[in-house]
Amino acid sequence: MKEIVILGAGYAGLRTLRELQKSKEEFHITLVDQNTYHFEATDLHEVAAGTQPKEKITYPIKDVVNPEKTTFIQATVTKIDRDSQKVALATGQELAYDYLVVGLGFQSESFGIPGVSENALEMVDVDSAVKVNQHIHEMMRQYAATKNEDFLKIVVCGAGFTGIELLGSLVEGKKEMAEIAGVTPDKIQIYCVEAVTRLLPMFDEKLADYAIKHLTDWGVQWRTGKPIKEIKPGIVVYQDDADTGARKELAAKTIIWTTGVSGSHVMGESGFAERRGRVMVSEDLTDNDHKNVYVIGDVSAVMDPESQRPYPTTAQIALKMGSMAAKNILHQLKGEKTETFTFKSQGSVASIGNSHALGLVGKTSVKGYPASFIKKMIMNKSLLETGGVKETLAKGRFDLYH
Ligand SMILES: Cc1cc2nc3c(=O)[nH]c(=O)nc-3n(C[C@H](O)[C@H](O)[C@H](O)COP(=O)(O)OP(=O)(O)OC[C@H]3O[C@@H](n4cnc5c(N)ncnc54)[C@H](O)[C@@H]3O)c2cc1C
Q: DSSP per residue over 76-144, as a string?
């Protein structure tokens, strides 16, 4: 019987699994993930800010595994050997495959800036998001004990999609933080340091301004056009003047790094032709030299014919790639030709807190409460596409009226 191994139970991997499990063809699947649960990476900022518990954004992987077709192994993947068709796990176990689907997702990217990994908190999985929240609470307690205002300061490094969503949730989480510190919420100081001046370039200026205005009204203090040069313990060092190169320091006891992500380090360590952990794949999503290896989601790069640049990595494209990988493996099993992957973005919506959002649905701009409603419907749809009805009913966002 043919063996299909899927690495990663994120959006891409679980979507592949669900599609393959529907097939009546004879094959066995092995799914590998380092966790026993799937997490909705798009909601990590809410756990980091403490506005949602981790249970709300996770569900057990075994809930979507059909044991008659699939074996789930909880283990960390360390290396992929495409020539011998084997995957090495940290446990020492080796898995042989006929077809491989790699969906190992993203990791934090420091862009070589000194001090980032040592002195800033990352937000890339459930554990790191929980750690951010625990750290903030501990800093609030330290303020209560010392009255040093640096403990009340939080800096978000980077004002991309993730940074903006995190800022919105942090503003919402201020009330709880203030209670721990024994101050009023306006005393919690939230900063954002960002290299560019035109924020949220994926949206038109009016929409981007809507987000910035709301966050400013809610007290976020901006340092835009200020490239970060170093993170020291409790200090963000940024370039204050582009002409002279003069630097300034911003002291804060919580520094969160959201300037960007790259694909899993396993890709480079396994000899894939990658750039920042992303592999430029063939048009059917296979590795260029190995037609039985599919590379999907955030570890994959597919060229957008319109912009002539790889599509941005999103859950939306990861889900579509998952479906296509499953479809193409089924074609290959039947000796048929594989299909070309095409993608048309349905737009994207960024939340700013639980009841505001902004973005594009198709080509239409949306903002405010309607956008927040749409964002929750998008979250529910993606949950449905990986977890099915049971998980959507249990973990979906149905607080639609404010
Ligand atoms: C805060 C935030 C907000 C976002 N908002 C949006 C949004 O609104 N819309 C949108 O479309 N996208 C959004 N994104 C981007 C989106 O989350 C990613 O593009 C998406 O998660 C990629 O899916 P994936 O399946 O490739 O990888 P992931 O979701 O990263 O899943 C990878 C899986 O692989 C497992 N894994 C990783 N390494 C190993 C290993 N070595 N061994 C075993 N298992 C491993 C992980 O545990 C995980 O289960 C957001 C991201 C963040 C961080």
A: -EEEEETTTTEEEETTS-EEE-SEEEE---EEE--TT-TTHHHHSB--SSHHHHHHHHHHHHHHHHHHH
